[in-house]
Amino acid sequence: MVKYSSTLNRTFAALADPTRRRILAHLARGDKCVTHLAKPHAMSLPAVSKHLRVLEKAGLLRRRRYGRVHEMRLDAKPLRQAAQWVEEYHKFWQGSLDRLAEYLEKENRPPEKGKTK
Amino acid sequence: MVKYSSTLNRTFAALADPTRRRILAHLARGDKCVTHLAKPHAMSLPAVSKHLRVLEKAGLLRRRRYGRVHEMRLDAKPLRQAAQWVEEYHKFWQGSLDRLAEYLEKENRPPEKGKTK
DNA sequence: CGAATATTTAACCATCTGGTTAACTAATAG
DNA sequence: CTATTAGTTAACCAGATGGTTAAATATTCG
Fold first, then answer.
1. Chain B window 31-90: which residues touch A at a Cβ cutoff of 8 Å?
2. Looking at the domain assignment, is residue A101 inside a domain?
3. Per the structure, how many domains does chain B have?
4. What is the CA A99 to C1' D16 distance in angstroms?
5. B32-33 β-sheet, strand order
6. Residue A21 placed within a domain
7. Is 0.85 surpassed by the pTM of this model?
8. What phi and psi, each to the nearest 5 degrees, are found at residue B95?
């Protein structure tokens, strides 16, 4: 059966913010330090730092310290579980256009006609 | 290029809550009315009603009214885009074990100059 | 040493979230 | 008409989120 893990909670929550998705995209192109990752984002360094911590707690990145520089490394493993979850609905979005057509045709269909409840 | 649509924001945010993922799972097994969907969840009807509105605004379900009964129907189309986004990171979680091994081996790699702390 | 750099922590703020209970609207049943 | 049922709306609350600025902590540079 489907599990409602807090891992999945944290993964999806982390992905819900566009800044964090952008950071992940940058990391996918190579490991970066905080200042580097912060530059393209119109916000303060502490704000980016917070986003990085969210991603880190979600397990989506690993941090290594070289002196005062924190080097971030993408870790996409949690995305695997997320992808699996979403994929369970594959057949539903595949058939969605058919379903919409069907839906529109049945415009006047009754609920559970006759004896409700 | 990657887009940071608010569609994706809403989709991932909707999926970040376990109650909502559970509701989607129930909907995947057939359309249900609000009271029906609420029953297995240890919370009030208004709470479930709010979750349904979140899912609706994320485009993950459609609502039809038959008299006083609101019938919910899963619409998984938004999940398609989410799946595509996540899939872009497929190669990263595939290679993650190798990467971790590599990471652990390089444990003593120098920072940028030949100076370790 | 003292100055500069990289980053975090602290304190604060507005808004969002997920829940509650109570009251309301609307439809059906008797 | 009245009572019941389905569901939403309103008001409220605690805690999370996403941002800010200012101060603190390391680390490296000269």
1. 62, 66-67, 69, 71, 73-77, 79-80, 82-83, 85-90
2. no
3. 1
4. 38
5. B32-33, B69-74, B61-66
6. yes
7. no
8. -85, 10
CATH number of the domain where residue B12 is located: 1.10.10.10
Range of the domain at B75: 1-105
Mean pLDDT value across chain B: 84
Question: Rounded distance, CA B12 to CA A22, Å?
Answer: 14
d(CA A64, C1' C4) / Å: 23
- β-partners of residue A98 are none
Query: Which tokens in the block code for residue A15?
Result: 């992905």
Write the secondary structure of A61-78 as one string of H (helix), E (strand) and C (coil).
EEEEEECCEEEEEECCHH
pLDDT on residue A109: 40
In a domain, B114, yes or no: no
* Strands ordered across the beta sheet of A69-74: A32-33, A69-74, A61-66
Residues (2-61, chain A) with CB within 7 Å of strand D atoms: 13, 16-17, 19, 42-44, 46-47, 50-51, 54
Judged on CB neighbours under 10 Å (0-12, 13-18, 19+), A60 is buried
pLDDT digits (tens, 9 = 90+) for B4-31: 579 999 999 999 999 999 999 999 999 8
In a domain, B63, yes or no: yes
